[in-house]
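Quick illustration for those who missed Monday's session on complexes.
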Amino acid sequence: MTAREPSHLFYQSRLRRPLVDRAEGVYIWDVDGKRYLDGSSGAMVANIGHSNARVLETMRRQMEKATFAYRLHFENEPAERLAAKTASLMPEGIDRVFFVSGGSEAVESAIKLARQYAVATGQDSRWKVISRMPSYHGSTLGALAVTGYDPLTAPFLPMMREMPKIAAPRAYLDRDNLSPHERGLKYADLLRDKILEEGAETVLAFIMEPVGGASTGALVAPDSYYGRIREICDEFGILLIYDEVMTGAGRTGRFLAAEHWGITPDLIALSKGFAAGYAPLGAMVAHNRLVEPVLDAGGFQHGYTYAGNPLACAAGLAVLEEIEREDLCGNAERMGSALKERLELLMKRFPFIGDVRGKGLLLAFELVSDRETMTPLPAAQNAYLKLVDEAYSRGLIIYSRRTRGGREGDHFMVCPPLIVTREHLDEIVDKLTDSLA
Ligand code: PMP
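Prediction with 4'-deoxy-4'-aminopyridoxal-5'-phosphate bound:
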């Protein structure tokens, strides 16, 4: 099928893209036989690469046995084994796993477990989930309520309870004399101020992406930020939710981004790389001390029909085994620093690259008209579309946005599968260089 008839499908825009034919490793082919390097792993999803033979074989075997058995009628072994494997990869105590089918559902589940824990333990007055501006936590109404990006949330405000927001650290835009350490503490203390303003007895949780994803384009906070946030949550008895939907499953060079700072959150949301595109799957992982009171009080009043089905869980388990077997966290760290260095070199040649940022293979750069002031290019130039199209024509796919949570600008995420080799990095950088030129 190559003819492009009018489509019954619709997505965000009228933009049409090539029809996919097949995918293998870091490459995707369209129906005309053109090959593309998947330079952003889709939307930071295909962490172990496409069509991994071991994962496909595991899925094939599971498909021949049972693809679906409703979780309230039957338990299944892949779900049990994936839960145990997931728990083994989490910080101490974060060992109760609830499966879902995507990132928004994982965030939604974390918020709902937090609230049911509060109710079960006599803390009914706690319901506010403080989040950051900008941030992205998903598209369902609960996840959207904690998302800090006005264009996405504005139409729905009458339909949901607006949640308090604090500014996310965007130290690269600050023109002050603070050290990175001081800036980290300054931004973290915004949480303290907000809790006091709202009344600590009304605040349930704080949710953050450890490294900004779609919201800020791979923005990492100063190191001091992370520990101080944990301290503030503890001081006021507020639960800390890490949204690791994009950063999890090895993307930043550790299985969880939280490991970089030794942070133990109370709840963690996972999806994307967790099943790496092999199945719609995500997980909400919680500290046991939150789960037990909820189960004692009558159970977790929440769930999704497809959640925890044997096929998706078999795929997820095979993906996690692959990450471990091939040391993909280590490769993400090594290839990530190599790629970051290569992108930084491009800044010498192209003065309109404002900065390069990120951790592991969660990397991004931003195009600007002035690097000193980080002034964005005029919107009318449509640089984000132009560069993506140039890259497409050269067989490279990168993820771009014109704005990141209200900050105007052209942002590009370079986040290939964690299996990339140095040869793949050469190909990415060569194609990107030609496209930028
Ligand atoms: N949280 C974060 C940090 C994300 O990046 C995303 C997806 N971009 C989501 C949640 C929502 O995930 P999904 O699109 O799978 O519902």
